[in-house]
Amino acid sequence: MNKIELQLKVEKFLFDYADCLNEKRYEEFPSFFKEEDCHYEVQSKENEDLGLTTPIMGCYSHGMIRDRVAQLIDNTLTYRRLNLRHFISNVRIEHDGNKINLKANFQVMQSDLEGVSELYLVGRYEDVLILEQGDLKFISKRAILDSFSIPNMLAVPV
Amino acid sequence: MVKSNNTETLKQKVEWPASDFSRVPYEVFFEQEFYEQEMEKIFLGPTWNYLAHTCEIPNPGDFVTNWIGDTNIIVNRTSNDEIHAFKNSCSHRGTRIVDEIRGNSTRHVCPYHLWTFDLEGNLTSVPLEKGLKGKGGMPPCFSKENHNLTKLRVETIGGMIFATFSEETEPLVDYLGPHCESQIARLLDQRTPKVTGYMRQMIPGNWKLYNENVRDPYHASLLHLFQVSFGIQQPTMKGGIKMDKDSKNTWNHSILSDIDDTSEKDLATAYEGTDKYEPEIKLADPAIANVPLDLDDGYKTTLLSMFPTSVLAQVDNTYAIRHLRPKGPGKVELNITYLGFEEDTEDQAFGKKLTANFIGPSGYISMEDGEALRLDHDGLKMRSGDYSVLEMGGIGEIADTDYLSQEISIRGFWSHYHQLMGFEE
To answer: CB–CB of B392/B406 below 8 Å?
Structure first.
């Protein structure tokens, strides 16, 4: 695979990930992560810059990633029914063998049940992916929020 | 100060129909006039307000900025190792001086005309004070010592730095009361606290709704299904509330207990008529629920709510200081400082990263509080002339309980609010 093909493949993977969240197919969310030894974190830019490690969300196994969306799938959480839409841009990749380091920007807009939209979150991804038998998976996915004053709550992964 | 006594108009605006505060007029949550009076009578009045923990400013010159109500405050450590706090507004033209969250500085210089203040808030230098070549300058009557920054009284307990604008506020330890004193010692004095992270959450609801929320163990097991399923807090769990002499500060705690057949049956009864109780939910990776408690004294949760805006919380094995920063009647920022301890082993530090998933705006236990407050604020705005109902756990005397499903400590909050706001005859 040449560099352009790999770039396109990674971007499609990110867009599929965003669609999964935008379309509330939470049961598919864990399948974007490699089953063994995967991490998912949401962190504030404030903590990141200060070298502080307490996360907003921190999942350090595939089971914990499944647990993160369990209440969303069961629909047992009390949270605002919003439509979220991810916009992912400025995707840069560097690869070393079958490991790919990725940086990208994201923005998530929220639209309420009456169709009023506003900015929900803005930040950057710093991810590590692995390419195995033609399939991409996250080994590590970190969403670092510029907008770390969280509007009300953050129930859904970013 | 050019402020009319507006208490009379507030008195005319609402009534408090129950002397035990089992009814609260809804206007106090959404009327601008109440908010303005609160800023003056509560936040600039005889209350102690949390600013920072001493471990955040370990060295001379270290500072942080924080809010007491609508007022931005600089708190810093001097070269004598004293802690001083003052209003972040220049004595010259009112400009905000420090426009950072935290840092280190040997002095504070106003960016506008470079008036310079020492770390005690004293004005030390005014550019061109004596003019230039005999011309201009400040008049002979100008004296720098009359133009220091507005200083606050500062006291600390367990490293928590509190400040007050009023000379009349009683000493901090008397203000907090014996339960706060012993619990702060339990949580913060046994080991050496350090900050492991900050978290901010902007809640679209009145700041007093959050005060009700933390004094309300009744909701804890009903709104938050997660902790019910995993035995962190249940309506059948043992615990209680204890208050200070003014009933303004609450220590609400629950005690670790084994789940047995009787408690399972009690649970089913408690949730009768709702669709919330689903005991079959299990974690795919139970590591997060299996982090051992650092302290072996049996407390599963400890919430110390200190009037008007501070909370010291141990929820499971998480330790955090929460601080409310009101942003108008309909909005409040919850600013959380997560604590670990210098003595923590690597395993304990990792355990705290895991249990961080319980709390904050994404916390399995706490994330729904913001939503409950949003819905509460949105709904009660339609209820001018009407009152909320606080009767769970009993009405009448405001007293400590040895059970959790109660709203008595919320009535305690309102009793003190009522007094500070001048509603009493």
So the answer is: yes
**Domain region containing A131:** 3-145
**Closest of A158, A1, A148 to residue A69, by C-alpha:** A158
Of B278, B284, B357, the CB nearest to A57: B357
Block residue for tokens 């001379």: B60
State whether B199 and A56 contact (CB < 8 Å): yes
Q: Domain of B90: which CATH number?
A: 2.102.10.10
- Which residues in B lie closer than 8 A to residue A46 (C-beta atoms)? 101, 198, 200
Tens of pLDDT, residue by residue over B271-315, are 676 666 655 567 899 899 889 999 999 898 999 999 999 999 999
State how many domains chain B has: 2
Could you tell me which of B234, B236, B256 has the C-alpha nearest to residue B314? B256
Q: How far apart are CA B302 and CA B322, in angstroms?
A: 13
B252 and B351 belong to one structural domain: yes
Under the banding of pLDDT at 50, 70 and 90, the label for residue B258 is: low
pLDDT in tens, B314-360: 998 999 999 999 999 999 999 999 999 999 999 999 999 999 999 99
> pTM value?
0.94
Give the domain range for residue B116.
Answer: 49-157
In this predicted structure, the answer to whether residue B1 has a pLDDT above a threshold of 50 is no
Regarding whether B199 and B145 lie in a shared domain, the answer is no
As a whole number of angstroms, the distance between CA A139 and CA A61 comes to 10
State the complex-level ipTM.
Answer: 0.95
Output the CA torsion B286→B289→B295→B298 (10° steps): -120
Position B2 scores a pLDDT of 46
Please state, in angstroms and rounded to a whole number, the distance separating the CA atoms of residues B146 and A59.
Answer: 56
Q: Domain containing A96 — which CATH number?
A: 3.10.450.50
- In sequence order, which ranges of B16-171 are alpha helices (DSSP H)? 27-30, 32-38
B231 with B139, same domain: the answer is no
Contact A153 B200 (CB under 8 A): no
Least CB-CB distance to A64: which of B226, B288, B361?
B288
Q: What is the pLDDT of residues A51-77, one digit of tens each?
A: 999 999 999 999 999 999 998 998 888
SS3 B152: strand
Alpha-carbon distance of B246 to B132, in angstroms, equals 58
H or E segment at B299?
Answer: strand B299-306
